[in-house]
Amino acid sequence: MECEICGTNIKGNPIRVTVEGTVLDVCSKCAQYGKPQDKWTPVSRKMAPTERVIVTHRPKRDAFDKLEDEILPDYAQVIKKARESQGLTIEDLASKMMEKATLIRKIEREELIPEDTVRKKLETTLNIKLTERVSSKDQRGSGFIRGTTLGDVAIIRKKGK
GO molecular-function annotation terms (predicted)? Predict the structure, then answer.
């Protein structure tokens, strides 16, 4: 067996010492660099009483699993046509929906994509459908289902010499 500090062959039994928190088997010459470890001593811990907490494990779900529908690409025009066909101004529509008129303006100008709650209010108030069902067939590449990869997002530059 070799000394874990100097590397010389140990004749007889090695001496077990602790050097900066690490337990090493060393020769008699290197034993001076650590504290001898004769017995195992448990670390005393003060135990504070704690309340029992019952943890219920819920299955982890991906946020994208809930998404079945995608918002229409021309959602702003659909909203504007439906609002104008009912003879409503932006302020009238906002008051019916209990939302701010600036929010409706930004949605109609395509500055904002409506959140689900606002989208549902728009759909019920204007009696329109702003989402379309996305099937897995739409996401197929050349014969296989393909997700987004790093190569789709990153620009890879080769290192020049």
Answer: DNA binding
Mean pLDDT of successive 10-residue stretches along the chain, which has 161 residues = 85 85 85 76 61 65 62 91 94 93 93 90 92 64 57 67 56
The span from the CA of 116 to the CA of 74, in Å, is 16
Can you give the pTM of this predicted structure? Answer: 0.46
Of 78, 75, 74, 68, whose CA–CA distance to 134 is shortest? 68
User: What is the DSSP code (8-state) at residue 14?
Assistant: P
Q: Report CA dihedral (75, 80, 82, 83) to the nearest 10 degrees.
A: 140
Contact 96, 125 (CB under 8 A): yes
Give, rounded to a whole angstrom, the gap between the first and last alpha carbons of the chain.
Answer: 48
- Domains of the chain with bracketed CATH: 1-39 (no CATH), 65-133 (1.10.260.40)
CA–CA dist 147, 90 (Å, integer): 40
